[in-house]
Amino acid sequence: MKVLMVTTDFPPTVGGISAHVYELAKAMVSAGHHVSVLSRRHTTSEAEREEMDGISVYRMFYRGPGFLYGLQINRKVAALIPVIKPDIIHIHAMRPLEWSNIKDIPLAYTNHTSGYLKRLRKGGFRRLWLLKRLFAKPALFLAPSRELLETPFAISSEKLFIPNGVDASRYARNSQLREKIRASLSIAPDERLCIITRRLVWKNGVIFLARASEFVTNPKLKFLVIGDGPERQQVEEVFKHHCGDRVTFLGSKLHEEIIQYYSAADFSVLPSLMEATSISGLEAMAASLPLVGTRVGGIPDLIEEGATGFLCADQDPKGLADAINRVLNCDIDAFGRAANKRATEHFDWAQIASQTVTAYETVL
Question: Which residues 6+ apart lie within 8 Å of 199 measured at CB?
Fold first, then answer.
């Protein structure tokens, strides 16, 4: 099968959509499909055309005001069709969907972002009318959480929940690396380390984890926060007020650097207010870390309560602290092994790619 994926984010850009499109495309290529990706070109150092892990990558600059980006993308798609001859076009962002009008080739759309949920919460006739117009275009409507699959109006396309995935083989725990990193962070062998790999923005809820740290009873717990964003100053101030030097902020890191830190950790937390099947959560599970997470979006699909971690309400510091206290009192190693098993058996990218291709076949 020949697939053309259209996205506004692709490596080296970091983020959930970027990781999803790259890993999905790579897994499809491994299964014998031909995948091309059209994405944004940010700098002249990025090639306009390249091969990446068997994926044919095309990049383009967006010019002018934002509302014209979709028009430019659609023109580029039209120009690529005679070259690629795709059987299906798969759009991974709302912006390219706005101007999409390609005929005779089935269109799949993955509803990734919390921006959609924010639009729903704001409401208003105009916003809902625009969403209804956009969602009438795809023949196949996919989402990485059941919440993102819901629409407040009927659409004719087939709707299907397909979660994010993970390549568990990349996250095997390394005992030597664990000792080295923990020593560099001044973490004693009898101390526990909670890792948070999140952008410090409202939807990720890290401020509520900072507030929850006041109610965590174990004095041997330390926190490692990897990520940056507009809430960083506030999150740091609250964390350090309650934890002092028991919290470390490393700022933004490249993905390959983040992977190393999972070996040093004992469990991870997803305090999100909005979330799909979190890729960072799946990575933590693949690294044999139990998860504490909020009951939002796709997080309950990740965590098997009382076996791989614990769930709690969002925006509830005391409830979050209680879940953290529970994971600290469980057999963390056993929970970690169960988390790794669940990630490997249910969320491997090869399985996700196979589910996606099967979904494509329903509209071809």
Answer: 227, 228, 229
